[in-house]
Structure formats: C-alpha cells, structure tokens
Amino acid sequence: MKTGTQHALAIAFALAGLTGCATAPSYDETREQAIAMMKASFKVRGQAKLDRLDQDDMQRLCSQYVGEKVMPKEIAQQLEKAQQALVKYPADGKLLGDWKRGERIAQSGVGKQFSDDPARPAGGNCYACHQLTKQELAYGTIGPSLYNFAKTRGFGADIQRYAYGKVFNSQAFTACSSMPRFGHAQILTEEQMKDVVALLMSPDSPVNK
Amino acid sequence: MSMTTRTAATVLAIALAGPALAQEQDKTIQEIEKYRAALGDGNPAELWEARGDAIWKEKRGPKKASLEQCDLGLGPGVVRGAYTVLPKYFADTGKVEDLESRLVSCMVAIQGFTPEQAKKDPFGGPGKKVAMDALVAFITSESRGLPMNVAIRHPKEQEAFDMGKQIFFHRGGPYDFSCATCHGVNNQRIRLQDLPNLLNPRDAKRAYTTWPAYRVSQGEVRSFQWRLYDCFRQQRFPELEFASPASVALTMFLAYNANGGKFDAPAIKR
User: Fold this and answer.
1) Assembly ipTM
2) Which of A174, B45, B101, B215 is disulfide-compatible with B266, CB 3.0–4.6 A?
3) A58, B176 in Cβ contact below 8 A?
C-alpha cells in the first residue's frame, strides 16, 4: 500500500515535470523567439544595419544576467579576461593626447545613430554619464564622478594605461558595465582616445583642478 | 508667455553659471520643474485632440466609413477608458495590439485602406500634420484620470509581455546599450535629464501615464510608438518599424508595469 502510494506520487511528480517542460519555454527558446521578433520589427536605416541586433558573447551574457539573476563570479571573470585580450594599446606607446581636444570629445554626443552622418567623427559623450570638471554642471549620473580622476588615483604610467584600457573596452575591467567599448567598437579613434585619456590624466586638465 | 521665456532664460543662466555646488544643481532642477509647470497651463496638444476627434468621426478611405465602429478594446465605438486596457489581444486579428496598431487594423477593416497606406505617415514633422498623431491624442485624452488596467489573460498577451521583457534587456549595437542601460536603475540622470527606472512601479507609472506628450522642443505631439522609435535611435539600433510586433511587445511590458497609475496624457514635456 505504502509503496503503491509512493509509486503514484512519483508518477504524479514525473508528469508535473513533463507538463512543466511542455508549457514553459526555456530561457534559450524565449531568447530565440525574441530575437526573431526583433529582426522582423526593425529595418535598415543609414549606417544602422540589422546586424546591430546580433550579439557577441558579452552582449548575450549581459542580457541574460539581469535583475535578480546575478552573473556567477566565474562567468564574470571569464568575460573580463576575454575582453582584456581584445584591448589594443597604441603602437607608439604614447597614451596622452591633448586634454582640450579631449574635453570637446567628452562634450559631443554625435555618433553611430541612424540620424548621424557617418563621415563626421563621433564624440565620446562622457558628460552624458559622468561628472568630469567643476565647470560643466550638465553631467549625468549613470557612471561615477571622474572629477579629480588622476589627483585621487595618481598620475603614473599604470593609471594612464588603466584609463586607456577602460575607455577602449570597459568590459575588460567590469563585466556588464553600462559603458560603451569605445575602442573595441571603433566609436573613437586611437588619437581621440588619447585625447580623452589626457583629459582624465593631465595635471593641467580641469578634471584634476 | 513672457513668464515662460523668463523662466527659460533663468534655466539657461543657471545651467551656464559658475561652480558646481550641489545646492545650485538642486536649484537648476527646481527651475526646470517651474518651467514645466508654467508650460502646463495651456497644452497645445488640445489642438491635436480636437483634430483627432474630427478625424475619428470623418468618413475616410475607399469604403468611405468613419472609425466610430472601431473596437479599441472595450467594444465597438467605446473610446472612454480604452487606452487604459491597451495593449490587448484582439480575436478578429488574432494579435496583441497597442493603440496605434489597433488603429491600423481598424483603418484596414473598416475604411478599406491597405496596411501600407494605414502605416504610411506614423509621425508628424515640420509642416506635416498626420492623422495618426491626432487620433492618438484624441483617444488617449479620453482616458485621462483613469487608472491603467492592462490584463494578461490570453496566452498571446503573456507571450507579448515575455517578449517585451526580453527586448527591454537586449544589449546590442555598437554602444552595447539595452533599454535597461538608461531605464533600469533608480535616480539616474543623463546630462540633466532624469531617467525613469521602468522596472520600478513608481517611475514606470509616472513615465507611461505621461505619454503621448506635446514636446515643446519639437512642436509636435509625440505618441508612445514615437517614444520607442526615438529611444532605439539613441540606442544606436536600426529603425524600429511603426506598429511592429517588437514595438507592441515592448509596450505591453511597459504598460503592464504601469498598471494602477492614473493616466494623465497627452502631457507636455520639454
């Protein structure tokens, strides 16, 4: 009798499990369906082609671990390591450009939108998310304040290299950072990134005043 | 109007002025709020609402029929409160539809337009007034003061919500942005613009219930479809097609998250 009940329960659980599989699609199935829906709902316009909907590993993983679903530490470390390998430092070894040009790049939000002229250089739009100088009040708060960036961290070569790497590929340092990968995605040129690094690192820059 | 101009000048003066003391920033935000309040005294969206009311009743299309028998979700011809239950599943089309895609379906079924004709001019622009903006302004205005009440009953409604959620978190494009990049965290700002966290019920309600809106900077009433279209432009994605499945699914996700919020649009925004 007892075994009979256990048997019936086992079958009931097995059935419940099966029904669960049949009705609730897996995460991967839902993802695939959503991506197919997006591909059917967007159209090419100007420089913005449909391949912009495709995801690399970083984009795929960082779309998956959201909200209460925290990315496991090992996956985050693997992601950062893989992205570190994608950072390209300037061949001439020089990391500091002109901070005044860097300030103009930090102010400009132009670039990569379907309404933008692809022939014009893009901006970094740093102020959209970061405080940088005392002079500019219209800064966003999505990223941390970078005011006194080098003054607090140091003006040395190691911090310069960190700054360049971070601008080039933020994901190499913080998995699933909100910050675009300005070098990796070819938003900014090497020269422009050097100018932005100068804005952050130069002792004369208003960032460090 | 001179009040408005003066306030705008003050905002500009403060934005351009001296050292970044937290106190001054608070003052800047307060001034922007005052500017918004001054604009709210009279909303040009009323012109769109009146035009939409007339277009709703006008005999148009190859069938020379008005939209007055269109079922917006509460039965044929019921406009009052209809926007608060959208998006929803419609048995006649077998699809979940938001207001704009539902209007397209009605223009096709009742007035005899082709889908291409019905979707041809989704948004107005300089020197171009379109029927869709006016209809949206009129119909949404008839839900003012009512709580958002979007249901998930039909499996397709659940599917739309699930798809919308996936789209909200989809990181892509050259900037790696998703909707959540700007709208998934509390108390964030882009430049001086406050960003609603659309995953937080308080912000979600406030944001969703204030679209469509008359945009002062553009001189146009902008629909929720336009809001999504322009967000994706800034996200560096390709162009979101008007009334497309993804646009409806994302609207489903956002509208459902705003349930209980008192609808208060067409609003007025900077």
Assistant:
1) 0.89
2) B45
3) yes
